[in-house]
Write a structure and sequence with these properties.
heterodimer; A: mainly alpha; Cytochrome Bc1 Complex, Chain D, domain 2; 8 helices; globular; B: mainly beta; Methanol Dehydrogenase, Chain A; five-stranded antiparallel β-sheet
């Protein structure tokens, strides 16, 4: 399903729940199952630098906690997804699939205690850019 | 090696228009060879700092085949031209100082050698040299090659080294293992040129989890700026027969590596002396394979500029076990203590001590006392029974953890913090690492170690008031736990790790991240690994474990050895300001945790940017570039930047206007140099 289709067709509105219903990371934008897949990927692809507790390494920034939250608050999940997609894993950027990157982002959201929902995080950047990353629930 | 460049003839014309007054230039990484980061400019001052506007910006995305999010350079400015490095290629570039227009660019494609480099990405900058006629730019590639360029055109100097490059993996009094392509050694700092001598150190992978107790050694060398010929070498790990070899028991000096100088080197050209801040030996946290004090690990070493011969040294940490390195440029300071003039050298550190020595003799200006420290119990480890403690100035950032350092916004939060740390060992500076155990301790919780205090950006120094200005992280907690290394991971007995978790090699940013690293293949990565999720890390309900201030800038007078003022640096983080747990509490400005902030000193101001993004009632999402009154620490101005400061700021005068350049990047924002100046009236 393309984002364009979602935007232009009312017929498929039921198939685009993220776009139409979810506004922020507080609205249950990933599933528990997805974050579990993401956790496995994180352990394999990310933890060596960012730490098993997402607390960062000697130089790698933390992916949890205050600095991480304020760094992304005010942007969108799409921008976080694009950062991961374009530059991570650091030595092999672009080697993970969109689905894998979406799963990892779902795990980051889960670890940072944003609620899970019933719909998986999409792998389309434009759709993800509709989901606001907000540190505080509004 | 392939290289590429773009030269615009504008460069030559600009370079000819040399200004007579050099005080408005910034000719080396730290402004001068004394490591001061000081320029006595005052057009930008307290009355107008907040009016600064963007003069130009230079995005570094295209200086490599992928964007970089870790731009750490401090540019130079000479004769109206900006020189710096940037991008995942670590390209050298020249820009018009007034407009930011690209004048030339030079990059080196190093293939698999660049891909294997331990320190990739754009590095911290480059060096400028002139004899009054010829002008050269010197920089070190990720693959550890020293390149000489014509500053006017960016063309390589064919008579320098081998067609413009010196292979730094050769002629190093060691055979780099396992081979020249993959052999681990590199450098991300800017070279230093003193007189006609280029000074080059060495850097390695992050050292928490070495693959082996054996590694290449980080010797320091001097090279002739005209020819690239090696002039001298200093063995940072003494070879058999040299003084200090006996500080490595069981002949461990023969195989131990690292011990490089990865930070900036400082030079007193008048005295002909070079000051080397030497890092940790192999194994940041486990030294069982290198019993003894391990000279010159974590030592400040003074050598002769012409010969490289050892003059004096002081080991800041015996038998290093905490990754304290010496992480920043020594600072040369001519001071007056109790009526006596002293040519001093001051060394800021991760551990929050400022060590001050007579730079001619190496004698401490104020007594440094050897005091007993705790002995640990990790099997096979060798412990120094004492460590040196400077008596003055007092510590300027936290270097140990006690219960009193824990979060104390409310009694409940303090209680939760105490519950969390029950799984860890805590203690004062030099509390030893522990073997990680599931039932506890998981690790020694430390402050003032790997990422604490003053790190690579270093401090600044005002030669008029004899004052050091040092940013320091006051809350950068590093848990140091050790686990037995599986044989297929490392031949070390112990490496960093956490009990109950898979033992693996940790890598740092930049490793495998440069433009020579493998390009995307778009393959589907196999699924696998461990499940998991949840958890809170080392924070208390999202709040920092350690109480504020999370970072500070300190003004330290070197005539008296006193901290004159100390202020938190940076907006209170959003997570603290917006926490529902803290609603109704009046929390003073906390500063921000982070180790990569450097300061700039002008005639009247201390200037530094925030290291974190915030969104506050006072400003939209962004990071502030701040100015403080040098005399009092009072904040006197600020402007909003779109991303955090990631490289230390510099300043210069050009066509009657003062500029400030700062490197910004991080999060969603790729590397950019931004130049600020005052609006035209």
């Amino acid at each position: 399903m393309s984002h364009t289709l979602c935007r232009t067709s009312r017929v498929v509105a039921f198939a685009c729940p993220l776009l139409l219903l979810a506004n922020s990371v507080w609205d249950g934008v990933y599933t528990d199952e997805q974050s579990k897949r993401g956790a496995a990927l994180y352990a394999k692809e990310c933890a060596a630098c960012h730490g098993t507790e997402l607390s960062g390494g000697e130089e790698a920034p933390p992916l949890s906690g205050g600095a991480f939250m304020s760094n992304w608050s005010g942007l969108t999940v799409g921008e976080l997804f694009e950062r991961v997609r374009l530059s991570m894993p650091e030595g092999r950027p672009g080697t993970l699939s969109r689905q894998q990157n979406a799963d990892i982002v779902a795990y980051l959201l889960s670890f940072n205690q944003f609620p899970a929902g019933k719909t998986e995080l999409a792998k389309d950047t434009d759709i993800l850019k509709q989901i606001r990353f907000e540190a505080q629930k509004k | 090696m392939k290289h590429w460049k773009l030269a615009v003839s504008l460069a030559a014309g600009l370079a000819c228009a040399a200004a007579a007054d050099k005080s408005g230039e910034w000719p080396s990484y730290a402004a001068d060879l004394a490591g001061t980061r000081y320029r006595p400019l005052d057009q930008i001052n307290a009355s107008n700092f907040s009016k600064l506007e963007v003069a130009w910006r230079f995005k570094t995305d295209s200086l490599g085949n992928r964007p970089e999010y870790k731009l750490e350079g401090t540019p130079l400015m000479v004769n109206g031209v900006i020189y710096t490095t940037g991008g995942s290629r670590r390209a050298a570039i020249a820009l018009d100082a007034g407009t930011g227009e690209l004048l030339w660019v030079h990059g080196e494609h190093e293939g698999s050698r660049g891909a294997a480099a331990p320190r990739q990405l754009s590095g911290r900058g480059l060096a400028y040299w002139t004899d009054g006629k010829e002008e050269r730019i010197l920089y070190v590639t990720p693959g550890y090659r020293l390149i000489a360029l014509d500053a006017k055109t960016g063309a390589v100097i064919p008579t320098f080294g081998d067609k413009g490059a010196v292979d730094l993996k050769l002629n190093d009094d060691q055979t780099i293992q396992p081979d020249l392509i993959t052999g681990e050694i590199g450098l991300q700092s800017a070279p230093v040129v003193a007189g006609n001598t280029i000074l080059i150190g060495a850097a390695f992978r992050e050292g928490m989890t070495p693959r082996s107790m054996r590694n290449n050694k980080g010797y320091v060398r001097g090279f002739d700026v005209r020819t690239g010929k090696r002039l001298w070498i200093f063995h940072t790990i003494p070879v058999k027969g040299e003084p200090g070899y006996d500080t490595w028991l069981d002949e461990s000096a023969d195989y131990t590596g690292n011990t490089g100088v990865w930070s900036q080197i400082t030079v007193d050209e008048q005295l002909g002396l070079v000051y080397l801040p030497v890092e940790s030996p192999t194994g940041d946290y486990y030294g069982g394979h290198r019993p003894g004090n391990n000279l010159y690990g974590e030592s400040l070493v003074c050598v002769d500029l012409k010969t490289g011969q050892h003059k004096w040294h002081f080991q800041l940490v015996h038998h290093p076990l905490w990754d304290m390195d010496i992480s920043s440029a020594p600072i040369l300071a001519d001071i007056r203590v109790n009526g006596k003039e002293i040519k001093a050298v001051a060394q800021p550190t991760k551990q929050g001590f400022l060590y001050v020595f007579d730079r001619v003799t190496g004698k401490a200006v104020w007594p440094i006392e050897e005091k007993p420290v705790e002995k640990g119990s990790v099997p096979g480890e060798w412990y120094s029974p004492t460590q040196p403690f400077p008596s003055r100035p007092g510590i300027y950032s936290r270097n140990g953890i006690s219960v009193d350092d824990l979060i104390d916004f409310t009694p409940a939060l303090r209680d939760q913090a105490q519950t969390l740390i029950a799984k860890y060992k805590i203690g004062p500076v030099y509390t030893p690492p522990v073997e990680s155990k599931v039932g506890g301790p998981l690790a020694t919780l430390t402050l003032g170690t790997a990422s604490g205090g003053t790190n690579w950006p270093g401090a600044s120094y005002d030669p008029e008031t004899h004052t050091v200005y040092a940013y320091a992280c006051n809350a950068c907690v590093t848990p140091i736990g050790l686990v037995a290394a599986p044989k297929d991971v490392s031949d070390m007995r112990y490496i960093a790790g956490t009990a109950g978790q898979e033992v693996s090699i940790r890598t740092g940013p930049g490793e495998g991240a440069g433009a020579d690293s493998p390009l995307p293949t778009r393959r589907a990565a196999p699924a696998g690994g461990r499940g998991g999720g949840g958890g809170g890390g080392l924070n208390i309900q999202g709040l920092p474990l350690i109480k504020p201030p999370y970072s500070t800038i300190s003004a330290i007078n070197l005539d008296r050895g006193e901290i004159v003022w100390q202020v938190p640096h940076g907006d209170t983080p959003d997570v603290v300001r917006n926490s529902p747990l803290l609603k109704g509490l009046n929390i003073p400005k906390t500063g921000q945790s982070g180790y990569n902030i450097g300061t700039l000193i002008t005639k009247s101001l201390v200037i530094a940017g925030d290291g974190q993004i915030t969104t506050t009632p006072d400003h939209p999402r962004g990071a502030m570039l701040r100015a403080y009154d040098k005399a009092t620490g009072k904040e006197v101005g600020g402007i909003l930047m779109p991303a955090p400061q990631s490289g230390s700021p510099m300043t210069y005068m050009h066509n009657g206007k003062q500029y400030i350049i700062v490197a910004i990047s991080g999060g969603a924002y790729s590397g950019e140099y931004v130049a600020y100046t005052l609006p035209n009236e």
